[in-house]
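User: I'm putting together a teaching handout on how multi-component assemblies are represented. Below are the sequence lines for each component of a complex, exactly as they appear in our records. Could you produce the 3D structure of the whole assembly as structure tokens, so the students can see both representations side by side? Please keep the chain order the same as the input.
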Amino acid sequence: MRSYLQEQGLDAFIVTAPVNWAYLTGFTGSSGLLLLSREEAVLLTDARYVEQAKEEAPGVEVRRSGREPVQDLAGVLRSWGAQEVGFEADHLTVQRFRAWERELPEVRWREVSGTVEGLRAVKEEGELALIRQAIAIAEGALREVFALIADGRRESELALELEFSLRRRGAAAPAFDTIVASGPRGALPHGVASQRRLRKGELVTIDCGALYRGYASDLTRTFALGEVDARQREVYELVRLAQQEGIRAVRPGRVAREVDAAARRVIEESGLGEYFGHGLGHGVGREVHERPVVGPSSEEVLRPGMVITVEPGIYIPEWGGVRIEDMVLVTENGCEVLTSFTRELLLL
Ligand code: GLY
Ligand code: MN
Ligand code: MN
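Assistant: Of course. Below is the structure of the complete assembly, with chains in the same order as your input.
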């Protein structure tokens, strides 16, 4: 961030997104402001969080903000003599910005978009270790839940068991609302678990993830209850092949839309392209969905250290759906699939 300020001729930068200050400093509280100059870093937070911030963010100066945080903000910026000040245009309300403008009429404000997010896209070793652990937790929980799957079980019961297992294995929380989509509900890409009961001969999609020490995992498997017909098998194998082609396309220097295209081509050539309505994947880290976007129009270039999902799906209204989702690390010369769960169609 300091070299960014230098390059852009900014005297200071204000971080307002909690996920971004957590990334930059370690502070996990939900209220505060992180102010960066080219040399200094001050974290302003209220009485609830001051001690926590000192413990979690030893690299920055923690100051308690009073009743008027805008005045504290102004005090720091004035003490730095900051004239050109950047802020996170993606994460600041207009109302809050107007209050800053009124308090600091001498500042030239500059909208900055996606800068911390760009840094976050490339993971460091320590972050990768946490992501690997978040994956191991989710895979363990998924395995445990597979043993409970039976005709007549409700989607919601399976989601509950899964989330309980995630927590027991060390997750702070599920990374997102667990998706269990059975039978025709499989056509809903984000069909969070309902009260519906599973029935023999259905495909069931489970999409789950763990949040572990600030990092998320995200994986999906579709399996069959007991038996499958030819059409179900065919759609499954098509998604599996599309995913394989997507993963094969992941390497540094690739533009993300080319990876999307490699997988999408397989589904389009089969005539089912209209049923794959979302992008192929996304970055995963402190947020389940973060940079880079891996979709048909994404111009982001893959770089070593990025962690992305590869998750093609086919969703046919009233029939159901299939999605297979894995997490992949972009390496120096290709990629490493971080998830280890089998991609064979399991008949449970
Ligand atoms: N679980 C949401 C997603 O796969 O993007
Ligand atoms: Mn998912
Ligand atoms: Mn995903």
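A couple of points students might notice: The first helix runs from residue 2 to 8. Residues 311 and 325 are 4 Å apart (CA to CA).
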